[in-house]
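// run 5 | inverse folding | seed 20
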């Protein structure tokens, strides 16, 4: 069966109107999956083929699958089969020039055929639309002549409210700076936030509010790992950008990456690996003298998995001791008791926790185990952790380590200076903060991509992001995306609190 007729059959399926017609077409779609799948797979492996084109074909075929099946089991089986053929085609091409030339021709034939008129029926495009290859569509969601709206789901209240506030503040500072400079081709950027209270059970409603009611173009800076587990499938189903969430978890870093999910920051696995190397190689602490204190949820699971992976990479046979506390609480009493039970051999704790819980844990254990090293990942919320510990006194702040996905806010790199100037102008009185700096950097990357995308829509923006190489924002480290790489930075910076509760840079390696 030729590409031409395969495409026309897909078009006919999409034009069909009765459930009996859909059911009768299931066997045909099953056969087509083995013919169309390898074509889009081969095209997806070619760097010079815009992935928006590939995604359009994939979306149309998945719609054909949906309409030709009568139950979820059959639909899932067909979808898995189609995905398998795509993977087969991708591995077959290998990105070679000759194979990509064939893939380009086949994809073009498939596109041309899909844009020809299918059998008449309800829902069929007009002949003029089909001949030109364009179906009339309304305005792009979230974009008007005057503005571009982005959504953000964050906690307005509760144990993580300060992290949410800081992330929002950094993004809004970058948006305001861009708007004062003329915006995005004359359009202003607007950030609309919705509250989920750091409760993943409320995340879906917040995402729906932003997407359906506020009609946002995409999402930026969402807070929370368990929350992202809910938000990402929602965004992917709607083929909507999910940019730079405030989490280093694996759920936002799939391999190969989800097309619409992009990260700025390094992962928790990279942060915890850096801490393991620092403690074992630089501080000369035996692995069995290190424990991991984690929030009992996907955030904690991810951090613990990063430590375990680092042990394996260093060929460390010792098991990792894990100490948990309940999610979104400060209930660390039992965790403190476990530390005291391990007191004779314990010298360091890697902490995958939120700010107030981390501070309470340090308060409970500092006197029980003198000299214990506390090493936190960046998600703890650096400023709020320092604030909590300063209330307890100098002996609680001194030496507490926090890894960072951004450079020191006290530094003088050009981007940090731009950030501090923007903060002084648009949020006067607010002190520089590591979380708001992360939001500012993420928004700055997105702004550059938006300026390079014209006309602006999600597929073109994703293609632009994937083409950004060696992006120099003045951080002292280059940033880059690619089709197989949706994380801009892998850099980890080290900081430690002094007796005054001020972060000082430290070398991790």
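// decoded
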């Amino acid at each position: 069966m030729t590409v031409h007729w395969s495409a026309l059959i897909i078009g006919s399926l999409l034009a069909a109107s009765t459930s009996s017609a859909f059911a009768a077409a299931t066997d045909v779609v099953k056969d087509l999956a083995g013919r169309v799948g390898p074509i889009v797979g081969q095209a997806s492996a070619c760097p010079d083929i815009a992935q928006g084109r590939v995604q359009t074909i994939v979306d149309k075929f998945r719609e054909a699958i949906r309409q030709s099946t009568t139950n979820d089991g059959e639909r899932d089986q067909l979808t898995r089969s189609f995905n398998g053929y795509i993977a087969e085609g991708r591995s077959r091409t290998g990105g070679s020039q000759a194979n990509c030339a064939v893939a380009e021709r086949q994809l073009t034939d498939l596109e041309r055929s899909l844009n020809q008129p299918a059998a008449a029926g309800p829902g069929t495009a007009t002949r003029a639309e089909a001949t030109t290859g364009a179906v009339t569509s309304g305005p792009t969601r979230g974009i008007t002549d005057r503005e571009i709206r982005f959504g953000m789901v964050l906690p307005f209240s509760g144990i993580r409210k300060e992290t949410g506030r800081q992330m929002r503040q950094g993004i809004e500072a970058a948006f305001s700076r861009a708007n004062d400079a003329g915006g995005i081709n004359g359009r202003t950027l607007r950030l609309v936030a919705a509250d989920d209270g750091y409760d993943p059970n409320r995340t879906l409603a917040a995402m729906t509010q932003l997407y359906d009611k506020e009609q946002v173009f995409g999402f930026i800076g969402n807070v929370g790992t368990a929350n992202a587990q809910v938000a990402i499938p929602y965004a992917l189903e709607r083929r909507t950008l999910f940019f730079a969430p405030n989490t280093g978890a694996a759920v936002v870093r799939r391999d190969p990456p989800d097309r619409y999910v992009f990260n700025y920051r390094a992962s928790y696995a990279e942060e915890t690996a850096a801490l393991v190397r620092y403690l074992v190689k630089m501080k000369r602490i035996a692995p069995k003298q290190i424990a991991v204190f984690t929030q009992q949820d996907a955030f904690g699971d991810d951090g613990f998995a990063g430590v375990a992976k680092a042990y394996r990479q260093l060929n460390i046979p010792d098991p990792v001791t894990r100490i948990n506390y309940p999610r979104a609480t400060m209930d660390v009493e039992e965790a403190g008791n476990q530390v005291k039970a391990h007191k004779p051999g314990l010298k360091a704790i890697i902490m995958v926790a939120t700010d107030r819980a981390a501070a309470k844990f340090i308060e409970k254990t500092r006197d029980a185990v003198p000299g214990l090293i506390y090493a936190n990942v960046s998600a703890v919320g650096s400023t709020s952790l320092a604030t909590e510990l300063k209330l307890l006194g100098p002996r609680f702040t001194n030496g507490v380590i926090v890894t960072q996905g951004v450079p020191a806010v006290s530094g003088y790199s050009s981007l940090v200076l731009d950030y501090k100037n923007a903060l002084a102008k648009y949020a006067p009185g607010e002190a520089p903060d590591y979380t708001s700096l992360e939001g500012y950097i993420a928004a700055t990357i997105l702004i550059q991509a938006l300026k390079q995308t014209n006309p602006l829509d999600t597929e073109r923006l994703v293609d632009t992001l994937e083409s950004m190489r060696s992006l120099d924002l003045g951080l002292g480290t280059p940033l880059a995306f690619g089709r197989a790489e949706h994380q801009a930075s892998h850099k980890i910076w080290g900081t430690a609190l002094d007796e005054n509760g001020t972060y000082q840079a430290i070398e991790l390696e």
